[in-house]
Amino acid sequence: MAQRRQRPSEFRPLIRATPRAFILKDNYLLVQEKRHPQKGHFFTLPGGKQEPGERLDETLKRECVEEIGAEVAVGDLIHVAEVFRQKSATPEKQHQLDFVFLCTVDPSYRPVVGPDPDPHQVGTCWLPVDRFEQLRPAYVTKLFSLGDTREHKVYLGHYND
After folding, report:
1. pLDDT of 58 strictly over 50
2. Helix, strand or coil for residue 5?
3. Which of 34, 59, 96, 109 could form a disulfide with 83 if both were Cys (CB 3.0 to 4.6 A apart)?
4. Are 28 and 132 spatial neighbours (Cβ–Cβ below 8 Å)?
5. Distances (CA, A) of 92 to 8, 82, 95, 101, 153
6. Angle at Cα 95 formed by Cα 38 and Cα 2, nearest 5°?
7. Are 28 and 144 spatial neighbours (Cβ–Cβ below 8 Å)?
């Protein structure tokens, strides 16, 4: 019988599944704008925590309505990344799996903050490709700068954020 591996003490006990929406329009990416006291001003992909019994696509649709006020059509899974995030409230890190899906919004969509935004979210916008260095976590900058991400590996490894 295989011995169960011990969890490193610097991590929380659960792995968080987090679907994210990668929504491109021309050379722009639809993102959440955030301001954080320690992390400063940055942008993230819409998406969030999967609830027990909820499918990844259902989670992503719910999160997009809550955060960016838009219904999305969820397409192909284009990347999976492991993120080890330091949460400011505890000394433990959050082990998170980000599942990035290629998504679309209605062509008439205009960026708004949804009815239940993320903490620290101050806006929603179409981010131009020349500002990709402000995206978080770090793997998103690679996705955006690559352009057509469907030709690249799906699993990107782990990133600290």
Report:
1. yes
2. coil
3. 96
4. no
5. 10, 16, 10, 28, 30
6. 155
7. no
Query: 23 vs 51, 77, 126, CA distance in Å?
Result: 23, 12, 9
Question: Cβ distance 48 to 59 under 8 Å?
Answer: yes
Judge whether residue 13 has pLDDT over 70. no
- Of 121, 156, 151, 147, give the one whose Cα is nearest residue 29: 147
Q: How far is 36 from 4, CA to CA, in rounded Å?
A: 38
Q: Which residues pair with 34 in a beta bridge?
A: 42, 121
97-113: per-residue pLDDT in tens? 999 999 999 999 999 99
d(CA 80, CA 60): 14
Residues in the chain: 161
Query: Where do the H-state alpha helices sit in the chain?
Result: 56-68, 138-146
For CA atoms 131, 152, 155, 124, the dihedral sign is positive
Amino acid in the structure at residue 49: K
* Sign of the torsion angle spanned by Cα atoms 122, 124, 129, 130: negative
Q: Are 52 and 129 in contact (CB under 8 A)?
A: no
Question: 107 by DSSP, 3-state: which?
Answer: coil
Q: What is the CA 139 to chain-centroid distance, rounded?
A: 10
Say which amino acid occupies 22: F
